[in-house]
Design a protein that fits this description.
By secondary structure, the chain is an alpha+beta fold. It is built from four helices and six strands, in the order βββααββααβ. A three-stranded antiparallel beta sheet has the order 1-2-3. It has a three-stranded mixed beta sheet with strand order 4-5-6, covered by helices on one side. A hairpin with a 7-residue loop joins β2 and β3. The longest helix is centred in the middle third of the chain and has 23 residues, at 48-70. The relative contact order is 0.15. Pfam families: OsmC (PF02566).
Length: 143
């Protein structure tokens, strides 16, 4: 099976004075604005790194749901956040890390099994495989 999903970006102007928009195939984002200030200066608005963070958090959580099911477990609730780090390096910028943080309520799960299954999901979710950055995970079982 092969699935293709798409996103697009448009840009007008120079790096610092230009303006761009981001769109997704699903329409979840439709010409949503982004620019230098939203990416590098903390101005409210979108940027590529927050989109990667959302993609990584959602992909990891779905992968863990599948892995839990294979182990005969079902999550009552899982909340995952991701922080993607963009750092200036020689020759430009690079995404250097994605830090996942998970809080989960999984009846019948013990912490050892939970940590093992969460690590498996971190290593095997498609977005983790895509990223060449260091990927870390902090997982907390709330039972």
């Amino acid at each position: 099976m092969k699935i293709n999903r798409s996103g697009s970006a448009a840009w007008s102007g120079g790096l610092k004075d230009g303006k761009g928009t981001i769109s997704t195939q699903s329409g979840a984002l439709d010409a949503y604005p982004y620019g230098f200030a939203t990416r590098f200066e903390g101005v409210p608005g979108s940027n590529p790194e927050e989109l990667i963070a959302a993609a990584h958090a959602s992909c990891f959580t779905m992968a863990l749901s599948m892995i839990l099911g294979e182990a005969g477990l079902t999550a009552e609730k899982m909340e995952t956040s991701a922080v993607v780090t963009l750092e200036q390096q020689d020759g430009g910028f690079a995404v250097t890390a994605s830090r996942l943080s998970l809080k989960a309520t999984i009846p019948s799960a013990d912490d050892e099994t939970f940590q093992e299954l969460a690590a498996k999901a971190k290593a095997n979710c498609p977005i983790s495989k895509l990223l060449k950055a260091e990927i870390s995970l902090e997982a907390e079982l709330l039972n």
